[in-house]
From TrEMBL:
Pfam families for this protein: ACT, PDT
GO terms, molecular function: prephenate dehydratase activity
SUPFAM superfamilies, per database record: ACT-like, Periplasmic binding protein-like II
Annotated signal sequence range: none
Reaction catalysis annotation: prephenate + H(+) = 3-phenylpyruvate + CO2 + H2O
Keyword Amino-acid biosynthesis included in the entry's annotation: yes
Top-rank taxon, per record: Bacteria
Keywords assigned: Amino-acid biosynthesis, Aromatic amino acid biosynthesis, Lyase, Phenylalanine biosynthesis
Enzyme Commission numbers on file: 4.2.1.51
InterPro entries: ACT-like_dom_sf (IPR045865), ACT_dom (IPR002912), Chor_mutase/pphenate_deHydtase (IPR008242), Preph_deHydtase (IPR001086), Preph_deHydtase_CS (IPR018528)
Protein name, as recorded: Prephenate dehydratase
Every ACT domain range: 200-277
Length: 283
């Protein structure tokens, strides 16, 4: 049976993405993103599903940096999931919002609800956890007046009460999850494909005037649509960066080799991190 790893424990948005996308595979939770990725690299599991970007908080830098600097695995699919953050308490909690002493959750989840927390729970101490599922687990085991920020799956898994629904600051909140595996034939997603995407890593030879313009021009005159471009440090010294670029089309035998050749002629290093379908989930 195919084994799928995800950022756990139960009740995380990653688990929600896995449950919505996959059916009969064995699902195994990991405490951290690196542990999940390492498990694929070591052949302990077949597939890993990890978050890569949130519409409000931006890129999950840990995922990007780990794939670039530590473990090389191809991206074979992307899952886009709508995010609904709720305030979770134990079922026997009978107090008011002002009575909550601590709010537990992942740093991204807390940031997504910053306005609500600032307005309604100014006296609560913020406690950061490795995942929203872990936050729910902590609240379920505690006897104190504390709360977690998480989804309805977390509330169900840990027997918590949803005190307030949809406390995130912005309605259009989505998270992108990437699917990593050594064998893409194991990935069987029975949903319609929204679009195809190719992700490239482009490293400049040195800091030189007009370098970014030259890179973008290689795509622009070929009319290739870029949905994201982001710079990340190479970790070799101040001012040294590479670019992660998402192109909204599958890798082909004409346009992409042309871009690669043009950029390499400029002294750039070009790596394909993955070419893959994108699925949008309705939850």
């Amino acid at each position: 049976m195919t084994k799928i790893g995800y950022l756990g424990p139960k009740g995380t948005f990653t688990k929600l993405a896995v449950d919505t996308t996959f059916n009969n595979e064995e699902k195994i939770s990991y405490k951290t993103i690196p542990e999940c990725i390492d498990a694929v690299a070591a052949d302990k599991i077949d597939i890993a599903v990890v978050p890569i970007e949130n519409a409000i908080e931006g890129t999950v830098q840990l995922t990007v940096d780990y794939l670039i600097h530590e473990v090389t695995l191809p991206v074979v699919a992307e899952i886009v999931v709508p995010i609904q953050q709720h305030l979770l308490v134990r079922r026997d909690f009978s107090g008011e919002l002002a009575d909550i002493k601590e709010v537990h959750s992942h740093s991204h989840a807390i940031a997504q609800c910053h306005r609500y927390i600032h307005k309604n729970m100014t006296g609560a101490k913020l406690q950061y956890t490795t995942s929203t599922g872990r936050a729910a687990e902590i609240v379920a085991a505690s006897k104190e007046s504390i709360a977690a920020i998480g989804n309805s799956l977390a509330a169900e898994e840990y027997g918590l009460h949803i005190l307030q629904r949809n406390i995130h600051d912005y309605a259009n909140n989505h998270t992108r999850f990437i699917v990593l595996t050594k064998n893409r034939e194991l990935v069987n997603i029975k949903h319609s494909v929204q679009l195809d995407k190719t992700t490239l890593k482009i490293t400049l030879p040195s800091d030189q005037p007009g370098a970014l313009h030259q890179i973008l021009s290689a795509f622009a005159w070929r009319k290739m649509n870029l949905s994201k471009i982001e710079s990340r440090p190479t970790k070799t010294g101040l001012g040294n960066y590479f670019f992660i670029i998402d192109v909204n089309q599958a890798y082909d035998d004409a346009l992409f080799p042309g871009v690669k050749g043009e950029l390499e002629a400029l002294g750039c290093e070009v790596d394909v991190l993955g070419t893959y379908p994108v699925y949008h989930m309705d939850i």
